Automatic annotation (TrEMBL), chain A:
The keyword Nucleotide-binding applies. Keywords: ATP-binding, Nucleotide-binding. GO terms for molecular function: ATP binding; ATP hydrolysis activity; ATP-dependent protein folding chaperone; heat shock protein binding; protein folding chaperone. Residues 1-14 have a biased composition (Polar residues). This is Heat shock protein 70. Belongs to the heat shock protein 70 family. GO terms for cellular component: cytoplasm. One of its GO terms (biological process) is protein refolding.
TrEMBL record, chain B:
Gene3D superfamilies: DnaJ domain (1.10.287.110). It holds the Pfam family DnaJ. InterPro entries: Diphthamide-biosynth_chaperone, DnaJ_domain, DnaJ_domain_CS, J_dom_sf. It comes from Lactuca sativa. It comes from the Eukaryota. PANTHER family: DNAJ DOMAIN (PROKARYOTIC HEAT SHOCK PROTEIN)-RELATED (PTHR44240), DNAJ DOMAIN, CHAPERONE J-DOMAIN SUPERFAMILY (PTHR44240:SF27). This is J domain-containing protein. PROSITE patterns: DNAJ_1 (PS00636), DNAJ_2 (PS50076). One of its GO terms (cellular component) is chloroplast.
């Protein structure tokens, strides 16, 4: 295993190269928090978690890759002379927001108008075209490739830090990520020669850290502590509610949304220059200046009530403005409302009463914003934030803990005697009853899980059925993420409503999703044709496009309807 | 009412018979990596694990209380403690590679019923009937051997 340590980005092929991985002596996996704006690395050093610093002694490194003549460099090793350099067109960033999204996604179209590199959208449901400016020429890349280049640098840094080859990693991911996006992250890791041991939702990593602290401080292992974790970074927000006792933390609810500091930034830029879309693509420099000014203003408004902005965007456009906290909060009202409803929804889902919450844990850079802080504390009716956790390091520390746990490391002091029982963040189901989404595994189901729902044919003498698998929580099926599709054939000729089509979904401990379908005739014990087992996701990038094509080709001819719900618990 | 008269064949993949096949197929086909994990701390692994596994696998537990290894009158605190104790041994994240998701799912399902006062009361009622000789006034009788408590609620 240790011989292939050449730092190259492997080809973007369909095999993730996970096959040979069970080493006789499992190595401790490195924890990586791959953030929209910043990344960090941590590892269990034998007695505790330690963050790995780069050559400039930074624990938090900017997430971007600059494309130059020779070879691209990322924010781990690169030294920017000034932030503007990152905004000159040759640097590509915010990949965590863009990865695994199609060009009809509002996040992508918004990014295409405001980020200082090329994101070309055709608006037809395919991958966007992303490019960096190199010698005055747009050179194409992909989010996976940019992440892989960055991860190669992180890998090299980690190897210096732990003085051994590194292959296994635990990455934290937003709860909002679809399964398709998770496969893209795994792909980027594979391209960088890394093997993903776990992709952990960010709050799950924080929960692990919290459970460890509780276990070391609370001696009565029977007493339960309920905690709400709110995480808001540059790209995403997540909420989780956990119940911890004796080193076991049970997740009661998990919710995530693509709303973060980037939205605050874009709204603030908009507020400063309402017609800013017209600046791009010809005036990248101006866009960069505006971005830096807006970013700076947001930071300052966390500790002061007003900030003076005085910038020259060139071409005679000058902005000289004082922006106060009230204006900032008004311009970002929607963002704050989205965060509030995320917290409320998670509380409702987990059936936890706010009175029972013992600790409120805030993590992520944006929780430093007074409005965000007050909003979460207000909903939870608390006035003290849980003090024991560093908001910028919690996720990576939790990932490093998981890296040690997954390798089976024992700690004589018992600080690794931990278990997190997770739930899935999104419902998974199929299209049935015309255009409805019928969940089979509901969101917030404890994993591993297996659930089964029985469907039947929608037409007389229907011999085939199309199984279209979606992930999400929207009733209208198209608003959810398409994970894959396949056809069940060999249904015996029968009146509609007669054949029983058993659709079972199974999520195993490593979060692998499989869909199994068997056809039975009433009263019979054995399926009429061998059941199918399909690993998901199977769908390629063209999410929107695929759904359209399926609709056009088959209409409702291969539809299913719910027969009855026999949820096995 | 009408829907629940479907035969037992409807729980095809989640019936006990199937899950055994499933288990073996998972191991061979899945290329998701079981990250080789040494057993947990020695004392834990030897004493508690073997004991729990033995009591768990001994035979099909006759009630959800047996699944969790608690007495029928156990309070919520005991149910939760038992669940946590079993999770620390049976959860696929902690077990050595031979521990399967099925065992944990059974424990979790028992816990989910017993920790919820309403579900537990329903379950207790069916349990009493079954113990009383199975002469419940349920109407669907023919060919309905492995009745489950969920379906019994229909009357």
């Amino acid at each position: 295993m240790s011989q292939e340590q050449v730092y190259t980005v492997a080809s973007d092929s369909d095999t993730t190269g996970d096959e040979r991985s069970s080493a006789p002596f499992p190595e401790i996996a490195i924890g990586i928090d791959i953030g929209t704006s910043q990344c960090s690395l941590a590892v269990w050093n034998g007695s505790q978690v330690e963050l790995i610093r780069n050559t400039r002694n930074q624990k938090l490194m900017k997430s971007y890759v600059t494309f130059r003549d020779e070879s691209p460099v990322g924010g781990v090793s690169d030294q920017l002379s000034h932030e503007y350099e990152m905004l000159s067109g040759s640097s590509v960033f915010n990949m965590k927001r863009l990865i695994g999204r199609i060009d009809t996604d509002p996040i992508v179209s918004q990014a295409s108008k405001t980020l200082p590199f090329l994101i070309q959208t055709l608006g037809i449901g395919v991958k966007p075209f992303i490019a960096a400016l190199v010698n005055n020429m747009w050179r194409s890349t992909t989010p996976e490739e940019v992440l892989a280049i960055y991860l190669v640098e992180l890998k090299a840094l980690a190897e210096v830090g732990v003085k051994r080859p590194v292959r296994n990693v635990v990455l934290t991911v937003p709860a909002a990520f679809s399964r398709f996006q998770l496969t893209r992250i795994s792909r980027a890791c594979a391209m960088a020669g890394l093997h993903v041991v776990r992709l952990m939702p960010e709050p799950a990593a924080v929960a692990l850290l919290y459970a460890q602290q509780q276990q070391l401080s609370v001696h009565d292992s029977g007493s339960e502590k309920v905690a709400l974790i709110f995480n808001m970074g540059a790209g995403y927000s997540d909420v989780a509610i956990i119940v911890t006792a004796g080193g076991v933390s049970q997740m009661k609810g998990l919710a995530g949304s693509t709303v973060g500091g980037e939205d605050l930034l874009q709204n603030t830029m908009h507020y400063l220059l309402p017609n800013m879309e017209n600046l791009f693509p010809n005036k990248i420099k101006s866009m960069g200046v505006l971005r830096v000014a807006a970013q700076d203003a947001i930071h300052k408004l966390s500790s002061q009530s007003k900030v003076q902005i005085d910038i020259d965007l060139g071409n005679g456009i000058k902005i000289c403005k004082i922006i106060d906290l009230e204006e900032f909060e008004e311009a970002n009202k929607e963002v704050f409302e989205k965060c509030a409803s995320l917290v409320t929804r998670c509380l409702q889902d987990s059936k936890v009463n706010v009175e029972h919450i013992d600790d409120v844990i805030l993590v992520g850079g944006c929780t430093n914003i007074p409005k965000v802080k007050n909003m979460v504390m207000g909903i939870c009716k608390k006035n003290k934030i849980y003090p024991g956790i560093n908001p910028l390091e919690a996720a990576v520390r939790g990932a490093a803990l998981e890296g040690a746990l997954a390798a089976g490391v024992n700690d004589p002091l018992g600080s690794l005697d931990l278990l997190t029982i997770q739930v899935n963040a999104h419902s998974i189901g199929i299209r049935a009853n015309r255009d409805s989404f019928v969940p089979i595994i509901a969101r917030n189901t404890t994993m591993p899980a297996r659930r089964e729902v029985v469907f039947t044919t929608a037409h007389d003498h229907q011999t085939e059925a199309l199984i279209v698998v979606y992930e999400g929580d929207e009733e209208v099926v198209e608003k959810n993420y398409l994970l894959g599709y396949f056809k069940v054939v060999g249904i015996p000729l029968a009146p509609r409503g007669k054949p029983e089509i058993n659709v079972c979904m199974d999520i195993d401990a490593s979060n692998l999703l499989r869909v199994m379908v068997g056809v039975l005739m009433p009263g019979e014990q054995n399926p009429v044709v061998p059941p199918l087992e399909v690993r998901m996701p199977t769908a390629d990038d063209g999410n929107g496009l695929t759904a359209d094509v399926l609709n056009r080709s088959f209409g409702s001819t291969l539809d299913l309807v719910t027969l009855h719900n026999k949820m096995s618990r | 009412m009408a829907v629940s008269s479907i035969s037992t064949a409807s729980s095809f993949f989640t019936s006990p018979n199937f899950s055994i096949n499933l288990k073996s197929s998972v191991k061979s086909s899945s290329n998701s990596v079981k990250f080789g994990r040494a057993p947990i701390s020695a004392s834990y692994a030897t004493a508690e694990k073997t004991e729990t596994i033995r009591s768990f696998c001994s035979n099909t537990p006759s009630s959800l209380y047996d699944v969790l290894g608690v007495r029928a009158g156990a309070d919520i605190r005991e149910v939760k403690a038992a669940y946590r104790r079993l999770a620390r041994v049976l959860h696929p994240d902690v077990g050595s590679s031979d521990s399967s998701a099925d065992e944990f799912m059974k424990v979790h399902s028992a816990y989910a019923t017993l920790v919820d006062p309403v579900k537990r009361a329903d379950y207790d009622r069916t349990l009493v009937q079954r113990r009383a000789g199975g002469s419940s006034p349920v109407r669907f009788s023919g060919g309905y051997k492995s009745r489950r408590w969920e379906t019994d609620q229909c009357w």
